[in-house]
Design goal:
three-stranded mixed β-sheet; single chain; 2 domains
């Protein structure tokens, strides 16, 4: 009942004003009618709020997020190890990071991730499952060491480690920054380093198809 009070009070005030002018000409409204009016107002408010929330969610789903969702769906459809691969879309390029169990599975990954809408190219960063046993510590520990040694404090650069192999993605502001990050990956003990970092100036005019 409390949630209807604002609408009921407003309606009663309006009725009082009309009664002052002459209640004889005023049609009778039952309490149920008042409740219906209040409920109608609340339903309209809920509808507008729902539409606004949906628009907000659609705006949050930017082109790269949508492309990642398409890539995720393509990988899930393949099953096997590819279900656990991580899709990353940045600066119009798509990356697939994870492991594969066989050459056949790797071939399926190539076919499934071609021509993803919203990206210029798709890069597979897949490694044979179990091949990273010589890497120091776990993939998570190695990633943390790379970030710490490079002194990274930006979201523009993403470092992912798979089977002891480091993959560097995103944007840097200078060649010195790029060199520092790649050197940190080597110094931390990565078995290999794949550098896909882009200079911000070189990437300003790039746009996905």
């Amino acid at each position: 009942m409390r949630r209807y009070r604002p609408a009921i009070l407003a309606l009663l005030l309006g009725l009082s004003a009309l009664c002052a002018a002459g209640c004889a000409a005023l049609p009778f409204l039952a309490v149920g009618d008042v409740m219906n009016v209040a409920e109608t107002g609340k339903t309209g408010y809920d509808m507008v709020a729902g539409l606004n929330e949906r628009r907000r969610l659609e705006l949050d789903q930017g082109p790269e997020t949508q492309a990642e969702a398409r890539l995720r769906a393509a990988l899930d459809a393949q099953g096997g190890s590819l279900r656990f691969a991580v899709p990353v879309v940045t600066s119009g390029r798509a990356f697939v990071l994870g492991t594969y169990a066989s050459q056949k599975e790797l071939d399926r990954a190539r076919l499934a991730t071609r021509n993803i809408k919203g990206v210029r190219e798709t890069i597979l960063c897949l490694y044979p499952a179990g091949s990273g046993r010589d890497a120091p510590g776990t993939d998570g520990e190695l990633r943390d060491n790379i970030l710490r040694m490079a002194g990274l404090r930006t979201r523009d650069v993403r470092v992912v480690v798979v089977e002891g192999n480091a993959v560097l993605m995103g944007q840097v502001r200078s060649q010195d920054e790029r060199a520092r990050i790649t050197a940190s990956a080597h110094d931390a003990g990565a078995l290999s380093v794949r550098d896909y970092l882009l200079l911000v100036a070189a990437n300003e005019h790039a746009s996905p198809r």
